[in-house]
Amino acid sequence: MTTQKSIRKTALQYGIIFSLLYFLLIFFSHTYVIEQLSNESRKHRLDKEVESLQAIIENEAPAPDEISSMIYRFQLLLEHALIVEMKDGSIIASSNIDQTKLRMVSEKPAGFVEIPPGADGLLGLKRDVRIDSPLSSITILEMESGLAERSVWAHLTLLAASALLLVVLMALVGATTYLALKPIGHIKDDMRRLQSGKQRRLNPNAPEEFSPLIKQFNNLLELASRRLDRHRRVNSDLSHMVKTSISANLAILSDTDSLPPSRDDIEFMISNLRDLSRSLNYRMSKADISGRQMGQTCLPIEIADNVISVMEKIFPDRSFRIKTSLPNEFSWPMERQDLSELLGNLLENGGKWSQTAVDVSISQTASGLTIKVADDGPGISPEAASKVVDRGSRLDETVPGFGLGLSIVSEILEDNFGQMDIGSSETGGARITVMLPFPE
User: Fold this and answer.
1) Are 311 and 393 in contact (CB under 8 A)?
2) Are residues 421 and 370 in contact, defined by beta-carbon separation less than 8 angstroms?
3) What CA dihedral angle connects 141, 144, 146 and 152, to 10 degrees?
4) 223-232 burial: b if 16+ Cβ within 10 Å, else e
5) Residue 207: burial class (beta carbons within 10 Å; 0-12, 13-18, 19+)
6) What is the secondary structure of 292-322 as a DSSP string?
7) Rounded to the nearest 5°, which phi and psi values hold at 303?
8) Is the pLDDT reported for residue 366 higher than 80?
C-alpha cells in the first residue's frame, strides 16, 4: 500500500520545482531582453557617432591625410575602430584594426556588423554616404571584449536579483501554503475532540473544498447515532416484550393445580405467541433499516413493480396501478432494501384499507424523488396523521392498522432525510406523499 504524502509537503515540493522553473524562465528572458536593449542602445550610439564623423568630414572637406588625423583623434576619444571608404576605392582606417578584419568590413553591407564573434571580435555600424559626397561609407566598430565584460556584470547583477526574487517567491509560496492549509489543522483538532467525546460533530464552517466532505461525515455520524438509538430501543422493547410473554406462558404452565392447561389457556398462549412473532418481525424490520449509503443505488420502478406483484397476491381483490414517466432503468441513490421496505409498507396499508384500488405515482422533481400512494378507503384522521409525521414519535405499535407500517416508513425517511405528507385522495381515502431529496 502506497504511503500517503502530506498535502503541505507536496505543495511545498511542487512550489519549489515551479519556482525554480520560474526563476530560470525569468533569468533567460531577462538575458534576452537585456541583449536586445543593449543592441538597440549600441546602434543608436554608433549611429550618432557615425553621423557626427560624417558631418565633420563633409563640412571641412579634408584631404586624405587630414581624414587619417581625424580618425586618429576619434580613436583616442572613443576608443573605437574607424573605417572610411572613399568613392575612388581607397580606404582610411584607424590603427587598431588589422587588414583581415578591414577586408571583412568592406565586404559587409550597410547596417549592424559583427566581425567575427569572440573575445577579440568587433561590433559596429556601417553607413553608406549620399551620392554627392566623396565618401562611400563610414564604419565605427567597438571591441566585443569590453562589451562582454559589461555583459558579465549585467548577468551577475541579474542573477543576484533573480536569486533574491526566488527567495521572496519561495517565502510567498510557503506562506500561501501554510495559510491555505491552516483550516486542515482545525479539522484535525475537531477530529481529536470528536474521538475524545468533547464534541459530537465536526465544525461545518470549513473551506469550500472540504465543506461537502464534512457535511457528509456529519450526516454519517448522525445516521450512526440514530441507528444506535434505534437498536437500543428495539432491544429494550424486545426484552420487555419477550419477558412479558414468557412470564405469562410460564405462569400458565407452572400452575400444577390446573395441569393440563384448559382450552382457554392454550388459545391464550397461541394468541400470545402469535402476537410475539408478529411484533418480533415488525421490530426486526425496523432494525434492518440501513439509511442513506454512499455509493448505493436502486431502481425504483423495478422495485415498485416487484412490490405490486407481491401485493396483488396478498390482496387479490384489490387493483394496484402504477403511473410514472420514468424509464425502468432509472436509478436513485438509496439502499434497495430501504426503498423496498418503504414501498411495501405504503402499499400494504393501501391494500388493507382500500375498497377497490390503490394508485402509485413515482416522479422526479427539481428537489428529488416523489412517491404518492392513494387509496379509496376511509382515510387517516388528522390526529393519527400528525402523530405519524412528527419526527421521532411513534404510534402505538400494539394497535393494528396504519400505525405499524407508517411508523417504519417514518423511520426510513428519517434515515434518508426524506419527508412524508398525509392527506386525502380524490376518492376520499388516504393519500401519502413521500419526498426523497437528492444527496448533498
Assistant:
1) no
2) no
3) 150
4) beebeeebee
5) middle
6) --TT--B-HHHHHHHHHHHHHHH-TTSEEEE
7) -65, -45
8) yes
> Which residues, 6+ apart, have CB-to-CB distance to 408 below 8 Å?
282, 285, 286, 289, 341, 342, 345
Tens digit of each residue's pLDDT (9 = 90 or more) over 122-170 = 678 888 876 667 778 888 887 655 455 555 666 677 777 777 877 887 7
What is the C-alpha to C-alpha distance for residues 128 and 107, in angstroms, rounded to an integer? Answer: 13
Cβ pair 305, 322 in contact under 8 A: yes
Residues 416, 391: Cα–Cα separation, whole Å: 13
pLDDT digits (tens, 9 = 90+) for 46-62: 778 777 777 777 777 77
Residue 356 · residue 323 · CB < 8 Å = no
HSE, CB side, 13 Å, CA atoms: give it for residue 424. 7
Yes or no: say if 307 and 362 are a contact pair by the CB < 8 Å rule: no
- Amino acid letter, 19: S
Look over the chain and give the mean of its residue pLDDT values, rounded to a whole number. 76
Find residue 368's DSSP bridge partners: 437
Cell numbers representing residue 359 in the block: 394508485
Greatest Cα pair distance, the chain, in angstroms, is 160
CB of 421 closer than 8 Å to CB of 350: no
The rounded distance, in Å, linking the Cα atoms of 70 and 38 is 28
Q: Cα separation of 297 and 437, whole Å?
A: 14
